[in-house]
Design a protein that fits this description.
mainly alpha
Length: about 140
């Protein structure tokens, strides 16, 4: 299994938690049904989902700060959870280059995005967020 597919399954689980208001364990189990997942991928998916949910307030605050003429609660659940997942990687996975995290979020946006503008929108928010993080580190 590729990391791209692992991210996709993590996104599906996050979407289920957000929309279905189900528990993370249940969403993780449902999203992985029918896939052969090794221990490394299992850990990666779990880390993405649990880490995103554990840091949801901080992630949402950063996302809201970088939205232009939008409010977080008005975003589609797809866009909101793609932003959360991408930003989680940017903030908490220093082993993954920011450009990779953004690109992976964009690939998922192309597949699941709520509109034709979703890719550009997600790119802009994640790029501004990553840029601010780099400025803070300097």
């Amino acid at each position: 299994m590729s990391r791209r597919l692992a991210r996709e399954l993590a996104f599906i689980a996050l979407f289920q938690v957000d929309i279905g208001k189900c528990r993370a364990e249940q969403a993780l189990r449902r999203s992985k049904e029918g896939y052969s997942i090794g221990d490394v991928e299992e850990h990666f998916i779990g880390e993405l989902v649990n880490g995103t949910l554990e840091n949801l307030d901080q992630l949402d605050s950063i996302i809201a700060k970088h939205l232009v003429k939008w409010e977080l609660n008005r975003l589609s659940a797809i866009d909101r959870n793609l932003l959360r997942l991408g930003l989680y990687e940017i903030l908490y996975r220093p082993d993954i280059p920011h450009a990779v995290s953004i690109n992976e979020a964009l690939e998922l946006a192309k597949k699941y995005g709520s509109s034709g503008e979703a890719v550009g929108f997600i790119n802009g928010v994640l790029d501004r967020s990553a840029g601010e993080l780099l400025e803070q580190k300097q």
